């Protein structure tokens, strides 16, 4: 029987397929946005779908000139009054039937605004309602704890942004191809990262299993990775988790640091690494169990993944936490085919 780890191991093939087939997959989108200068996108999504697009904000605004705003569906539907006729609204629902995402799409269409829907199937109600549906390429994911769907949503949304930037003449085809080739470098490193994480977890399992909470910290897009890692570990194990931007981590949250917590500090040489290492040293020396995840290693508790992508290493970093989530859940005796607290569906409806 296949496991969730097998799903994680299959992710590179899904992502390579998205890159290889980007021309045909986005043909309708390129026609839809043709000759429209769109410099703002509003993403409406929740959970892992939200995290998948939030991780792209820095790259999009710095290198593509496209402003990215983000809304949780409930906030957009019930508490957001101002809509922008010059904005492209992108709704995301992997299953394609999330109730509030569907309501958000209807609100957008009632105001005759440009819209795109990202789902796993063109046959879903959200795809059928949208002006421009795009499949995220994950198929029918076998586990409810999304790993394939998260990673394919990242890559699909990235390609969408690149196509839009090209339409805006912010980048040319040569630059688009360059970015995709850099993405592929990261994708090609994922198998190695899964293997390294498997070995790292087995070596550190005793220290990890002794603790009942997790805190994560990172900056720039690694903060968005920390948010997704937060959800993955929380829902899969399950256990209490919190994620913070690196600087914010050492303010109020430090008052709650204790030795019952696993600390993950996400680090990359190009961004605040000196600060990240200093925080990690403090946690290791004064508090308890801390692991640096990234391209630097102090001791055996740290995992150096040697990121291969210059711009999109976030797709490499999250692979560590997808894999850690799987191992930590199975070592806690979780059956990842079964949900927890499924009776909540008797109290509230989440799908159309």
List keywords for this structure.
2 domains; 10 strands; 352 residues; 5-stranded parallel beta sheet; 14% strand; 50% helix; single chain; alpha/beta; 15 helices; Rossmann fold
Describe this structure in words.
The strands form two sheets. This protein has a five-stranded parallel β-sheet, with helices on both faces. Strands 7-6-8-9-10 form a five-stranded parallel β-sheet, with helices on both faces. Strand 3, helix 7 and strand 4 form a beta-alpha-beta unit. It has two domains: 4-187, Glucose-6-phosphate isomerase like protein, domain 1 (Rossmann fold); 191-331, 3-Layer(aba) Sandwich (Rossmann fold), CATH 3.40.50. Helix 4 crosses helix 9 and helix 9 packs antiparallel against helix 10 (173-187). The radius of gyration is 20 Å and the shape is globular. With 352 residues, it is an alpha/beta fold. The chain is 50% helix and 14% strand. It contains 15 helices and ten strands.
């Amino acid at each position: 029987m296949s496991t969730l780890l097998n799903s994680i191991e299959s992710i590179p093939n899904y992502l390579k397929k998205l890159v290889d087939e980007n021309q045909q997959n986005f043909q309708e989108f390129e026609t839809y946005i043709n000759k429209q200068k769109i410099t703002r996108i509003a993403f409406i999504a929740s959970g892992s779908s939200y995290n998948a697009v939030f991780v792209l904000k820095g790259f999009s605004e710095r290198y593509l000139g496209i402003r990215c705003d983000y809304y949780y569906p409930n906030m957009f539907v019930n508490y957001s009054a101002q809509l922008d006729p010059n904005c492209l609204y992108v709704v995301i629902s992997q299953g394609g039937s999330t109730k509030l995402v569907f309501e958000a799409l209807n609100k957008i269409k009632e105001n005759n605004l440009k819209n795109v829907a990202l789902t796993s199937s063109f046959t879903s109600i959200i795809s059928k309602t949208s002006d421009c549906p795009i499949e995220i390429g994950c198929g029918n994911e076998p586990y409810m704890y999304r790993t394939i769907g998260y990673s394919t949503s990242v890559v699909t949304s990235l390609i969408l942004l690149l196509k839009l930037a090209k339409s805006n003449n912010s980048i040319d085809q040569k630059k688009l191809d360059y970015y995709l080739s850099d993405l592929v470098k990261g994708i090609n490193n994922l198998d190695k990262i899964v293997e390294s994480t498997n070995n790292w977890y087995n070596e550190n399992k005793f220290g990890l299993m002794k603790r009942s909470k997790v805190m994560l910290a990172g900056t720039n897009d690694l903060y968005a990775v920390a948010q997704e890692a937060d959800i993955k570990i929380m829902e899969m194990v399950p256990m209490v988790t919190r994620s913070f931007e690196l600087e914010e981590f050492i303010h109020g949250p430090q008052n709650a640091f204790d030795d019952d917590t696993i600390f993950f500090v996400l680090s990359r040489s190009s961004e605040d690494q000196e600060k990240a290492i200093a925080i990690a040293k403090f946690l290791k020396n004064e508090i308890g169990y801390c692991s640096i995840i990234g391209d630097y290693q102090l001791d055996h508790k740290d995992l150096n993944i040697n990121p291969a992508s210059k711009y999109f290493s976030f797709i490499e970093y999250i692979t560590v936490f997808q894999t850690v989530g799987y191992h930590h859940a199975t070592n806690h005796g979780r059956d990842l085919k079964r949900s927890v607290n499924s009776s909540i569906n008797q109290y509230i409806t989440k799908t159309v």
